[in-house]
TrEMBL record:
Belongs to the MLP family. InterPro entries: Bet_v_I/MLP (IPR000916), MLP-like (IPR052006), START-like_dom_sf (IPR023393). GO terms for biological process: defense response. This is Bet v I/Major latex protein domain-containing protein. The lineage of its organism: Eukaryota, Viridiplantae, Streptophyta, Embryophyta, Tracheophyta.
Length: 157
């Protein structure tokens, strides 16, 4: 009876690692404008989007269904381009005791970059399926953000 698990996906991106990470580290409010599967996000508690004590409310689509949850930032490691987000409330609490998204943006030796998403979870019981829909959701959002940032970089030139 395994209740805890991890799902991991890595995606190559065209955006420089520093720029992609910056969106999540200091421009998180922009995600709703860049990802078609994110319908809305708003501050629920707190004044600053990137403080660890701020709570955001997210509305998004996974597997064709609208979901909601709350999110806080547990950690931001700018040197290693890594952020940990804790999700709770709404649909998350119906299935999971623990649910974290870990974002790592990795510079490659050839000048390219990779985005690594890890979903760490603990199910409330063994009848709950792993959150496999999150992998497609994160992959699609990563592609949407990368396309927007690459397009923006071309316009800036």
């Amino acid at each position: 009876m395994v209740l805890a698990g991890k799902l991991i996906t890595e995606l190559g991106i065209k955006t420089p690692a520093e720029r992609f990470f910056k969106l999540f580290a200091s421009e998180l409010h922009e995600v709703q404008n860049l990802c078609e599967r994110v319908h809305e996000t708003k501050l629920h508690q707190g004044d600053e989007w990137h403080d660890t004590d701020t709570v955001k409310h997210w509305t998004y689509i996974i597997d064709g269904k609208v979901h909601t949850c709350y999110e806080t930032i547990e950690e931001v490691d700018e040197q290693n381009k890594k952020s940990i987000f804790k999700l709770f409330g709404g649909d998350i609490d119906e299935h999971y005791k623990v649910f974290k998204l870990i974002l790592e943006v990795i510079d490659k030796s050839d000048g390219s970059a990779t985005v690594k998403w890890t979903v760490e979870y603990e199910k409330i019981n063994e009848d709950i399926d792993p959150p496999n829909g999150w992998m497609e959701y994160l992959s699609k959002c990563t592609r949407d953000i990368d396309a927007h940032l690459v397009k923006g970089a071309r316009v800036a030139l």
